[in-house]
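Structure in, sequence out. Go:
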């Protein structure tokens, strides 16, 4: 009995030590910075945290991280969770192969490698050889591959790398036969790939930023260059620039037959764009094909001077059209595959067939057409879920696709285009029994009566008693759909009785452009209402209750979480706003933030300022409010959403929260917005987030 009492006392002492009200947050100084927005004075006392190069900011970051790690270190099951996640993560992961001449190229991770390795093999049954191992590019996994393109003759390939997760890319070239670097190097490229033409490639870049401002400075005046193999980058030929429009983004792509260069011109992230082209066979001038920002256009392929174009022009659910260069006027455009009730998500042309992926209530559906647009048949998929792939060339008769769902680990299929047959190519060997879990799609009504889909995943035998711990995830913006996907990270949650809920909010592309536009600009509140209604549905239908409900979102989803816990703090017990856009008055002043004005609006516009200030997470934290237990996450190399968003937000939350729940920030190093994060850092982050969640729900998980 004495021993039992001692253990109990130790547990109680530990619990008291970790209690939120005993937390002492680092002191964060306040300044008297005040800005005038159209006659309205707005204080910004933590503006100094925007200086990411100052010693003072660095000391604040160190102090915040120490506070967070001290808190997490007292959670007794944290290491057990990390161990369990490591076990689950440790399985072979493959990408779908791409055909390169007589060879196939794919990536593979043995399980716990920091970065996946690129392999090449001759034929489907050939012996794989390492083509490029990014794990040798750094000693900590902080350098990742980002972008890969083979020359038309398959003799060379260009690959991009990201250092520390930054959006900046460096490109190098490798001789396929010798697997040796050629000596070519491209720097200061961002939001661009490489597109080969003859003995070189086109790419986009910016001027070199000021020293120390690489991760903060606004990205303006992107240019398109042509790099010839063997030349120094300073000798590259300028192909395209726009001196009058500093915030335009350009993309360059060469047709498979090397007859045409296509230039995509966009403004911001609205996805509307213009298309220019150049006939490379006779070195004609660059000519506009679409010269207005009225819709989205994407060149799929060309055939004898006719362009297959994917567009939402007068078709919110998208369609495929044909533009003949002999008669390129809009009145002569021909619709090949018209808009339907399902959203046309992607189009590829392989094996002389048009393969179209659709979304039906956020589930994938694949249909095949002939080159004239006549429907032929559907591709049979394993179940309800998400499909990606179907890449290749028009004269190739095989392609590959990957299928996944919440309880269906990513599985690669080889597709015979001629015979409409799929065969299993590679299956994920995850230590996971899908038959033990249940997935269902429900529909609920938002505040204005709009029907919104949501996926629910849980272990079979769940009782609707209103007491199940639940994690609700969403994104809701930028025309990005939230689709069924598998994650090993969720298995420990499901095995401990969690419900995982994924809501498909307005602002995404689940139901086409109308669904997207219903969550933009002054209608952004619809997104927050959709999310709040999802939480209310889960509570009303006895899945959970406010003391057992956690919410998570990243980037635009971080904005979502920051906003909803301001508007309805009573609904949620735990919140994870990750790499979020938290300052809606200044987001456009850093890196590529100006591009989001086409989605959100700008505080520089007096009318748009009025609705931005109403929901901006930073500016709507109310003093004395009981906020959920909150862990903000960001990273030092995030040059997509500048970390100061999260810095200023958490400083304000720590100042104004009533103190009953912890409000912490976790700031990672040598990591960016998320892409390319190493395996070990991904596991550590997940372990920290979920340990925090279990602990603050007063749960004792078993792993």
């Amino acid at each position: 009995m004495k021993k039992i009492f001692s253990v109990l006392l130790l547990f109680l002492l530990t619990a008291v030590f970790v209690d939120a009200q005993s937390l002492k947050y680092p002191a964060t100084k306040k300044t008297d910075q005040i800005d005038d927005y159209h006659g309205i004075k707005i204080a910004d006392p933590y503006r100094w945290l925007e200086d990411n190069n100052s010693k003072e900011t660095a000391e604040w970051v160190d102090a915040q991280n120490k506070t967070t790690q001290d808190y997490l270190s007292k959670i007794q099951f944290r290491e057990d969770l990390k161990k369990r996640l490591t076990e689950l993560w440790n399985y072979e992961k493959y990408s779908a192969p791409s055909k390169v001449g007589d060879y196939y190229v794919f990536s593979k991770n043995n399980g716990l490698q920091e970065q996946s390795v690129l392999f090449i093999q001759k034929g489907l049954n050939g012996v794989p050889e390492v083509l490029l191992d990014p794990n040798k590019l750094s000693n900590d996994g902080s350098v990742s591959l980002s972008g890969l393109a083979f020359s038309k003759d398959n003799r060379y390939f260009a690959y991009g790398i990201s250092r520390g997760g930054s959006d900046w890319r460096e490109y190098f070239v490798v001789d396929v036969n010798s697997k040796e670097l050629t000596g070519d190097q491209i720097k200061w490229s961002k939001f661009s790939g490489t597109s080969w033409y003859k003995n070189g490639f086109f790419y986009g870049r910016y001027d070199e930023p000021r020293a120390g401002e690489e991760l903060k400075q606004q990205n303006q005046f992107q240019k398109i260059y042509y790099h010839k193999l063997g030349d120094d980058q300073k000798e590259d030929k300028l192909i395209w620039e726009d001196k009058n429009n500093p915030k335009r983004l350009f993309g360059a792509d060469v047709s498979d037959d090397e007859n045409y260069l296509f230039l995509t011109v966009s403004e911001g992230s609205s996805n509307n764009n213009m298309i220019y082209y150049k006939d490379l066979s006779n070195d004609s001038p660059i000519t506009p094909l679409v010269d207005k920002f009225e819709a989205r256009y994407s060149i799929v392929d060309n055939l004898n001077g006719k362009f297959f174009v994917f567009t939402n022009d007068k078709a919110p659910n998208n369609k495929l059209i044909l533009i003949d260069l002999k008669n390129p006027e809009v009145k002569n455009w021909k619709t090949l595959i018209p808009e339907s009730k399902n959203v046309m998500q992607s189009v590829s042309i392989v094996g002389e067939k048009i393969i179209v992926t659709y979304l039906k209530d956020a589930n994938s559906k694949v249909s095949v057409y002939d080159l004239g647009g006549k429907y032929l048949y559907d591709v049979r998929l394993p179940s309800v879920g998400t499909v990606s792939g179907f890449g290749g060339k028009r004269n190739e008769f095989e392609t590959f696709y990957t299928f996944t769902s919440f309880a269906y680990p990513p599985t690669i299929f080889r597709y015979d285009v001629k015979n409409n047959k799929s065969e299993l190519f590679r299956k994920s060997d995850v230590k996971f029994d899908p038959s033990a879990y249940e997935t269902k799609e429900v529909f609920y009504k938002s505040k204005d009566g709009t029907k919104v889909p949501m996926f629910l995943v849980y272990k079979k035998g769940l009782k609707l008693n209103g007491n199940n711990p639940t994690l609700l995830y969403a994104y809701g913006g930028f025309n990005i759909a939230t689709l069924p996907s598998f994650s090993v990270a969720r298995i420990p949650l499901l095995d401990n009785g969690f419900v995982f809920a994924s809501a498909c909010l307005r602002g995404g592309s689940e139901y086409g452009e109308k669904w997207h536009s219903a969550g933009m600009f002054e209608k952004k509140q619809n997104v927050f209402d959709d999310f709040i209604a999802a939480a209310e549905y889960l509570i009303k239908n006895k899945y959970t209750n406010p003391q057992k409900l956690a919410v998570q979102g990243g980037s635009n989803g971080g904005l979502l979480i920051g906003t909803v816990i301001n508007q309805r703090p009573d609904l949620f017990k735990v919140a994870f706003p990750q790499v979020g856009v938290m300052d809606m008055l200044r987001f456009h002043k850093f890196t590529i933030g100006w591009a989001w004005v086409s989605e959100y609006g700008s505080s520089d516009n007096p009318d748009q300022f009025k609705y931005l200030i109403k929901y901006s997470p930073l500016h709507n934290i109310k003093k004395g409010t009981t906020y959920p237990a909150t862990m903000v996450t960001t990273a030092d190399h995030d040059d997509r959403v500048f970390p100061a968003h999260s810095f200023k937000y958490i400083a304000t939350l720590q100042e104004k929260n009533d103190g009953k729940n912890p409000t912490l920030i976790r700031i990672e190093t040598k990591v960016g917005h998320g892409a390319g994060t190493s395996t070990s850092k991904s596991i550590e982050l997940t372990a920290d987030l979920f340990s925090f969640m279990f602990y603050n729900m007063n749960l004792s998980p078993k792993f």
